[in-house]
Amino acid sequence: MLLIILFPNQAKAQATGNAIKASIGFASSSSYYLENYGSQDELDVIGGGLYFQGEYIIGVKSWVSIRPYAGALFTSVDKNQNLQNQPQYKVTTNAFLLGGKIRLCAPIPWVAPFIEGGIGTSIGKFETITPAVNFNKSDLLLHIPFSIGLAIGRRNNFEIAISGYFHPAAKQSSGVFALGYTFPLD
Which tens digit of pLDDT belongs to each residue from 56-83? Predict the structure, then answer.
């Protein structure tokens, strides 16, 4: 903190120009509800898969940026053939994501923590089949993205982030662990 106060011109968390960021990661979709919560038969229905996303970065200041994005999220449920009488619960997402986010980033060289949030739309197929929810539609749905992470490297071009995409209509959320790289355009 002392270095940031003494040398504010040298402390930059992200470029103030335009850039493109590409991310890839592991995604997991789950229902908003735990089934049979508190009992021995408690069950959390989860699906896993892949996540891809590209962002166009508009750097307003070194600590704030606007980020329109487009991406894809593909999750499915593993079927365990060894379990007899396994319930046919599933939570899956196969969708394209479009939207915008705002990022607030600490202006720290080499390791800059950030938080971002926004709003977007998902276009695709959503399944949330549990005793509490029966949602199975191919539709256009609202989602709310939220991320925390670290921008690392000399120019903070590499990123490690944990993101969440909340789909209120489908009663499901998707968690993502992603790695990203930023390509400056200016």
Answer: 999 888 889 999 999 999 998 866 545 4
Measured distance CA(14)–CA(169) in Å, rounded = 34
The model's pTM is 0.81
All domains in the chain, ordered by first residue: 20-31+47-184 (2.40.160.20)
Q: What is the full DSSP assignment across 148-169?
A: EEEEEETTS-EEEEEEEEEETT
Residue appearing with tokens 């071009």: 157
* Three-point CA angle 14, 19, 20, nearest 5°: 120
Angle at the Cα of 51 from the Cα atoms of 153 and 124, rounded to 5 degrees: 145
Beta bridge partners of 25: 51, 178
Cα-flanking dihedrals φ and ψ of residue 2, to 5°? -65, -40
